[in-house]
Amino acid sequence: MHGTYLPIYGFTGLILSFILNMIIRKPIYIKRVPITPIIVFLIVFAVTSIVEYSASYILEKCFNLVLWDYSMYKYNLNGRVSLNTSVYFGIGGLLLYYVINPVMSKFCQCVNKKVVIFLGIVSILIILVDLIITLCI
Predict the structure, then answer these.
(1) DSSP 3-state assignment of 55?
(2) HSE on the CB side for 110, CA within 13 Å?
(3) 27: helix, coil or strand?
(4) Which three-class secondary structure state does DSSP give residue 99?
(5) Does the pLDDT value for residue 4 go beyond 80?
(6) Packing angle, helices 36-63 and 7-23, rounded to 10
(7) pLDDT-derived band of residue 107, with 50, 70 and 90 as boundaries?
(8) Alpha-carbon distances, residue 62 vs 10, 52, 54, 65, 113 (angstroms)
(9) Distances in Å between the alpha carbon of 35 and those of 32, 95, 107?
(10) Which of 2, 3, 32, 40 is the most buried (most CB within 10 A)?
(11) What is the DSSP letter of 2?
(12) For residues 36 and 27, is the Cβ–Cβ distance under 8 A?
C-alpha cells in the first residue's frame, strides 16, 4: 500500500475494539484494587502479538515478503514478534482505550451523523483506490 496506513493496524484495531467491548463492560476489581487496565494491556499485548505473527507468516509464505524482522531483539519469536514491540503495542492500546477512544466518541457524538458517515465513506474510498493501485502495479 502506498498511503500512510497499514491494513494490519486497522484490522487489529477492529479486532481489539470488538474483544475489549465484549469483555470490559465495567471496571474489574480484585479486593478493591482496579485491574481493568492490566486486563486491557494483556489483551492488547496478546492480540497484537498473534496478529503480527500471523501476518508476518502469511506475507512471507504467500507473497515472499518480509516487512519486519525482530531477530535483532533479545526476546523474539522467529523474528516475527518481540517482547519489546509487544509491550509497546500494549502501552499504545492502553492510550487508545483510555484516552483517544473516549475523545473520538465524544467528537462523533458532537458532529452531525451525516458528516461522520461521509468521512467514513471517503476514508474507505481512499484506501480502496490505494489498494487497487497497489494490486495493479
Answers:
(1) helix
(2) 6
(3) coil
(4) helix
(5) no
(6) 150
(7) confident
(8) 21, 15, 12, 8, 40
(9) 9, 16, 28
(10) 40
(11) -
(12) yes
With contact defined as beta carbons under 8 Å apart, do 51 and 12 qualify?
A: yes
Rounded Cα gap, residues 55 and 9, in angstroms: 11
- For residues 96 and 13, give the distance between their C-alpha atoms in angstroms, rounded to a whole number: 9
pTM, two decimals, is 0.80
CA dist 98 and 20 (Å) reads 12
Tens digits of residue pLDDT in 35-86: 999 999 999 999 999 999 999 999 899 888 898 999 999 999 999 999 999 9
Q: Which helix (H) or strand (E) holds 118?
A: helix 113-136
Return the DSSP state at 83: H
What's the grid cell of residue 104? Answer: 473520538
Judging by beta carbons within 10 Å of its beta carbon (0-12, 13-18, 19+), is residue 50 exposed, middle or buried?
A: middle
Instruction: Give the model's confidence band at 99: pLDDT under 50 very low, under 70 low, under 90 confident, else very high.
Output: very high
Name 20's Cβ contacts closer than 8 Å, sequence gap at least 6. 40, 43, 97
